[in-house]
Every structure is written in C-alpha cells, then in structure tokens.
Design brief:
It comes from Phaeodactylum tricornutum (Diatom). The protein is of the alpha+beta class and 121 residues long. It has a single domain, classed as Tetrapyrrole methylase, C-terminal domain (Methyltransferase, Cobalt-precorrin-4 Transmethylase, Domain 2, 2-Layer Sandwich), CATH 3.30.950. The protein contains three helices and five strands.
C-alpha cells in the first residue's frame, strides 16, 4: 500500500515534492523510542518533512524545530486529519500559529503533519 506520509498530504491537496519548491521529503515519527525526544531534522528550504503520530506533541515539536533545528518561524505547516475519510479536514498555518489553529479546530489523531514550502505550492 501507499504510506499515509504520502497519501494524506496528496488527499489534502499538498504535494510532498514540487519542482522548484521541494526536492526531497523526509518521513518521521512523532515519538522517539519509549517516549524519548526525537532526532530533529535540520531545516533545509527545499525539503518537506512529514510527521506521523505527532499531533499530540505539535506545540513542543514546532518549538523544538525552531529553537534546535533552525526552522524559520514562518515555515508553512499543514495538518491533514482523517485523510481519505468523509470527515477529512486540512488546516494550514506556520510554525508559530499551527498549534493554536489545531486546538481551535480540535484536530485529533489520526493526523499527518506536513512542514515546508510545499504547503503553499
């Protein structure tokens, strides 16, 4: 089958790669082994990072990506909730706003988080 890391963004209208925007995609889990912290992917403008199982850690994930991995505060972020289901929803923001947007819309698992310029492609 096709991983939700690819299918969820596609169903939400977001390509994971796009000519001139993102030339690579990295898939990550939202949780380290036994709840440990993640090995963060350093920022690269032409890269998409897709997080699985991370919506419960969204605020701390965004904070860490900004503080420890060099992501600009205005990096686009989207969340695709319940991809492929009739209840599917997509919300869009940036590193500074997406956690509040997710709370406002009561975004829950299963959700896929897409980080990078492809969100606006």
């Amino acid at each position: 089958g096709v991983s939700s890391a690819f299918s969820a963004p596609l169903l939400g209208g977001i390509p994971v790669t796009h000519r001139g925007v993102a030339q690579q995609v990295v898939m990550c889990t939202g949780y380290g082994r036994e709840g440990s912290s993640l090995d963060l992917i350093q920022y690269h403008k032409e890269q998409t990072v897709v997080f699985l199982m991370a919506v419960g850690r969204l605020r701390s994930l965004c904070d860490k990506l900004i503080e420890l991995a060099g992501y600009p505060r205005d990096t686009p972020v989207a969340i695709v909730e319940k991809a492929g289901c009739p209840e599917q929803r997509t919300v869009v923001g940036n590193m500074m706003t997406i956690a509040d947007i997710a709370e406002e819309h009561k975004i829950k698992p299963p959700s896929v988080i897409v980080v990078g310029e492809v969100v606006n492609a």
